[in-house]
Amino acid sequence: MARSPKITLSRARDIPFDKLVPSERNVRRVRAGVSIETLAEDIARRTLLQGLSVRPIPDREGFFEVQAGGRRYRALDLLVKQRRLTKTTPIPCIVREEGLVEEDSLAENTQRVALHPLDQFRAFQALVDQGLGEEEIAARFFVTPTVVRQRLKLASVSPKLLDLYAEDQMSLEQLMAFTLVDDHVRQEEAWETVQGGYNREPYTLRRLLTGNAIRASDKRARFIGLDAYEAAGGVILRDLFSQQEDGWFQDPVLLERLVSDKLAAEGETVKAEGWKWVRAVPDRAMADFG
Question: pLDDT confidence of 30, banded at 50, 70, 90?
Fold first, then answer.
């Protein structure tokens, strides 16, 4: 049986930045993902995590064209222009001499596998476990502290449900719904409940998880206000992923008592204006005008 020929890898070497030239044959033309400015800041913080793929320029001895890694090149160029990097700084490069520029550029961009969102959630949690705060993580990865809190909240969902998400048996929107409560048992019970029906929409999961809790948009909740309710010891379930900052008042009995007390106080204020009698009720339909 004939043996397969041994593979020879392209050589690696450090090349001064001023000897590198961006290739016009790089297949990436459409701008996408992290901005050059953000990438430059990331390189300044962590240095270059991935080298460039280059080829010698036939008619310019000692110069190389960057066939893959054009965004990294532009980020390095920005740092040079900002005088945060010298133009002769050695840049780690893989030197290619065989094949086609376009082929190598295409291969680098198509063979790259994006990080699964769950891996990012867990990585943020690992950074917290190592002592980094939410603000610091946000600064290091150029996101807002709210984004960090959202990722950490997703990482805290039941491991059983996270495994289902990793296996594409659950959508990200469904996973977000489970962050309303911290109880893993309740989360898993809610998931088991929707398995037996046809409706597995996130809003159904939220309804199961919030139970008898009252939405912050309810007129009674608006009448009392978040601050007064929390000051009285009430707990609010907050949805970190809602643009409307949705919340649920978790103690309906407390809310009803606060409503009654405030209505009574409002009634006394109105009565002091000279009315013979005043009746304060939470709903006009409840009033007896007979």
Answer: very low
